[in-house]
Model the fold of this input.
Amino acid sequence: MTKLLLRICLVVPFCLAVLSQPVIGKEKKQSNAPKPTVISSVSGDTIVITENKTTKTYTVNQFTEITLKGQKAKLSDLQPGMAVSVTLGTDATKVSRISAGDPPVQPSGKK
Done:
């Protein structure tokens, strides 16, 4: 009886480990995850961003808090292609906060 119990204790975890692994050679399907929000352009007192193939233009004023990689920045420091997060004020066309960073990382295999 102890030999049978020992075999079960050794074989069951091995089988579970093997069965829980993904099939070799099977590739993941592309996810339909939303595209990152990026800066399209910056000029004067406006910033244009693209999010999920939708372009939006926002007005920046003297009260807009702008950060680049966590550091205080000016609108002119921001460049097209940078990842961005915007927070709107009470007026949906004006931005109260802009947080920008490095361009989003492209999945491997994509150009």
